[in-house]
Amino acid sequence: MSENKNLIEGRTGLWEVVIGLEVHAQTISKAKLFDGCSTDFGAEPNTQVGFFTAAMPGMLPVLNQFCVEQAIKTGLGLNATVNKFSVFDRKNYFYADLPCGYQISQFSHPIVTGGYLDIDLEGGESKRINITRLHMEMDAGKSIHDLHPTKTYIDLNRSGIALMEIVSEPEMRSSSEAMAYVKKLRSILRYLGTCDGNMEQGSLRVDANISLRRPGDPFGTRAEIKNVNSIRFLGQAIEYEIQRQLDILEDGGQVIQETRLFDPNKGETRSMRSKEDAHDYRYFPDPDLLPLRLSDERIENVRITMPELPDAKRQRLIAEFGLPLYDATVIVTERETADYYERAVAALKAKDKAQGAKLIANWLMGDVFAAMNKDNKTVETMPVTAENLAGLIDLILDNTISGKIAKDVFTKMWDSGKAPSLLVEELGLKQITDTSVIEQAVDTVLAQHADKVAEYKSGKEALFGFFVGQVMKATQGKANPGLVNDLIKNKLS
Length: 493
Ligand code: ADP
Ligand code: MG
What we know:
493 residues; alpha+beta; Arc Repressor Mutant, subunit A; 3 domains; 10-stranded mixed β-sheet; 3-stranded antiparallel β-sheet; 20% strand; elongated; binds adenosine-5'-diphosphate; binds magnesium ion
């Protein structure tokens, strides 16, 4: 059933979409995979190029053990098997941004195999996607084609940086499942601290393999869309590709196995080259590197450093605070947001933690996210601290201010960075809960609108809201709305 709702209706019947993703995740590490030179992004071209990276004759690779630790951690975070024996192979090909003529990668014996992650779909559903493998490899340099009309420039700063290539099983069935997969994978990598997930800077690049088949048939021929660098583009590229293949197949044609590129400006994919097979690369074990052997102890030492991951954190937030699944999912996506949220809840003074926790979630996903978007801030750079947001919620919960006034206070907190209690004091925004004061205002309003009172009494009950509005206006919005309602009801009955 859940498989079927993804089927596409063509002119000639139903089709099923099959998607498998290969993600290249740049490993967080100060030095490159086989060379001590720096990995800093944005440095002057060709200034971070050690002797091995430049392929100087006779230079030997030295494996960066920290990158191995990072790959182990990622494997554990993806519920996978970390293999105690793996091998570095040479993948041979010529390209100007690959000075040594081969990429060191792992082919037949990768460091990690057989994991999974659970993707979050619309309506709170989730689906398990199996991960075939994770292998370590070095990145190539960058060819720059748009600086000169006839020449291509080469920047080797990126060359040799450690990548983790993470390959999924062909188990996704729509563009939204593929987008949810990358979103979840990115979130896990960022929690682990093994990849910063910055897609714009190319730290996370996605190759999408897409094919169509009749339901129940064997897999069809796939096309591979290379190097997609945003989740939104991934969705667009897949949608375009589905339509392209559908048109071919419905006309009785055949999809060619090839590598394609997505052009975000045109919103379409175009052919880049025909797909090469593994044997084209003449893979063989790199004679300069020993096989990588890991002891149980080494893997265990990484396991004990594992942080709480998003799914576990989400379960805990739901159990501890009774948060709805949706809220918890949004809050845990980014580790920094989850940390901020938990700090705010911890700072609450209100007795009813669950009520406060839900209110903080509402405010975070509402006013706070909106202000962050508007001013291009993150939870770490925005002016409202977790403690101050908790303070604002406490003022609502103990009836010092109404929810409506709280919105104004929040704006002022955002602009000034001041604590909410201070602002409420300074601006005289305390809610009026003194019945006699409110009663006075009610009397004045009713006296001023004797005609409307008469109409109300003769059956025009919709006027009730008008009276409430007038009393709130007369008290600059500070009267406790509950009391205002009660008092007006009393007076008019
Ligand atoms: P490569 O692309 O390097 O040749 P693989 O053959 O292992 O590597 O496949 C890479 C990706 O393609 C995997 O994510 C796999 O799930 C996916 N894939 C394989 N066959 C198909 C298919 N027929 N349709 C869609 N995706 C596929
Ligand atoms: Mg591939």
